[in-house]
Design brief:
Two copies of one chain form a homodimer. With 315 residues, chain A is α/β, with parallel strands linked by helices. The first copy, chain A, has two domains: 206 residues, P-loop containing nucleotide triphosphate hydrolases (Rossmann fold, 3-Layer(aba) Sandwich); 47 residues, no CATH class. Chain A is built from twelve helices and seven strands. A seven-stranded parallel β-sheet of chain A has the order 3-2-4-1-5-6-7, sandwiched between helices. In chain A, helix 7 links the parallel strand 5 and strand 6. In chain A, 50% of the residues are buried. About 5% of the residues of chain A have low confidence. At the A-B interface, helix 3, helix 6, helix 7, helix 10 and helix 11 of A face helix 3, helix 6, helix 7, helix 10 and helix 11 of B.
Chain lengths: 315, 315
């Protein structure tokens, strides 16, 4: 039934080149990506997934770099996914992959990958979820997903991790707006980076004030606020202590979150597949004709979708 | 066929309370929201939609406020939608609606509304698109959509406007990461706000450098970079000049963009409706059973979706 597959075998063996190939396959949504994930899936579920998000410029990459050093010191291996949303128009990164994490470049226990989004419907979140599975199957003890930005797509990705760090810094994330993007509620640990800068204590106070509004879950976890200076390696051990403290909680909360993650993922996959099927079954040019009719105000969008649905039903 | 509908009539008359009610209806996805949009739709297509986005803290709200003053001076009316992504968990805004735009609170030619996201599948973008239609039908000459954040969801919303302003500020958006979120390619005009601050010229140079990498469209529009100090009302007239210059271009580019907008919107609506139909037709509890099987590693996500698709096919 299942012929030998060098990529599959290589991922299970933790081979970096096979991991890179496998992630490319799921990122590009290649024809065999579903099959590859299907084979790897039974070997997943062991990695602990940490999401790291925050506004641009707060120092997330440096923080992840320093955190990786601490994790490596405990003997655990690390996979890092840097999510890099790119244009819906070109599908390409604007300034190319950043050169980063050079401290770990020679370390076989660390695998680093940048991900870009392709297309619209849940592409980035889906590809990221699959890449996490690849790193999980490859035996990485920790998978760190770093997202640039504070928008809904980033919140969606990070909120389904086993734990989420939300990073602020004075000047970059100290205003009320930054705290409104759904981010206060997904944070398991807050990090105030660049803590030597003026205004750091104000950021801590602002987070504390909005935490007072937060309803604490049934497991009574109150997100701590950790001050760091990642570039000088200050506060990283304290941050690691909080991560470990969160990770040692009873497994109930973690299992609930994983179930939510799978449920979101199934809905997203389902919606992609259903739309693909309808578009495949429509008469050629029909979708574009409906778009023209809507753009020309002959048909409203809801009426147009009704027609598409009827077409899908009859097939 | 169509009974008198006070909300529909009120929107067409530009009545603020009717507009507010109509937006609530589309935001909450009420049963009659599709019908309301269907009736309003033939009366839309006149408003010019301007998207404003950028990282938190760059001063977007103040900029929109000052811009509104300039637009009002020309005699045009303005509708403003402030998109406020909130938690996927609670569906509620964390810190409540901000008190803002007080300068225009008493002006009947200005309608201001904050939008929050509800649920996952394209909820925010869909509700925003419908709210734009309501303001368009209500006769607003300009609709300004301000999004907090720089993530994919915000890019999706703003990239379908008739024109997009991307706002930076020294310290908040002057790093390379901020420029990578697909934002360089959706900008029709760049604004460097807080231009009196140290580093403003560096931001202008960085934008200029990455613009050099940008492919110019067939209409040869090169996005200008405008320096503003919104709090002191500096540069707003220059910004308005650029907006008008963009708006006066031949209609071809604008029509293409509107077609793209309608196409994206149809796909999104279609995907929502298809998923709703499948979930409705599944045996009770079936979806949750599949989620459990996936969470328990008995079934991989792609195999689970195959089963859902087969269920949908048979119905």
């Amino acid at each position: 039934m299942k012929p030998p597959d060098p990529i599959y075998e290589g991922v299970l063996a933790g081979d970096a080149r096979a991991i890179a190939r496998a992630i490319s396959i799921v990122e590009n949504h290649d024809a065999n990506s579903a099959q590859l994930i299907g084979r790897l899936y039974p070997r997943t579920g062991r990695a602990y997934v940490v999401g790291v998000t925050g506004a641009p410029g707060v120092g997330k990459s440096t923080l992840v770099d320093r955190l990786t050093t601490v994790v490596r010191r405990t003997g655990s291996s690390v996979g890092i996914i840097a999510v890099d949303p790119t244009s819906p128009f070109t599908g390409g990164a604007v300034l190319g992959d950043r050169v980063r994490m050079s401290a770990h470049a020679a370390d076989e226990g660390v695998f680093i990958r940048s991900m870009a989004t392709r297309g619209h419907l849940g592409g980035l979140a889906g590809a990221t979820a699959d890449a996490i599975l690849v790193l999980d199957a490859a035996g990485k003890d920790f998978v760190i997903v770093e997202t640039v930005g504070v928008g809904q797509a980033e919140v969606d990705i990070v909120s389904t991790a086993d734990m989420s760090l939300v990073v602020f810094a004075p000047g970059a994330g100290d205003d009320v707006q930054a705290m409104k993007a759904g981010i206060m509620e997904i944070a398991d640990v807050f990090v105030v980076n660049k803590a030597d800068r003026e205004g750091a204590d104000h950021v801590v106070q602002t987070i504390g004030a909005s935490l007072a509004l937060k309803t604490v879950g049934p497991d009574d976890w109150r997100p701590p606020i950790v001050k760091t200076e990642a570039t000088r390696d200050v506060g990283i051990d304290a941050l690691w202590t909080e991560i470990e403290r969160f990770r040692q909680r009873p497994p109930q909360a973690r299992d609930d979150r994983r179930r939510t993650r799978e449920s979101t993922r199934l809905r997203r996959l389902l919606s992609q597949r259903l739309v693909e099927r309808v578009e495949r079954e429509l008469p050629p040019g029909e979708f574009d004709r409906l778009v023209e009719a809507v753009a020309g105000r002959e048909l409203d969008p809801y009426a147009a979708v009704d027609r598409l649905m009827r077409g899908a039903q009859q097939s």
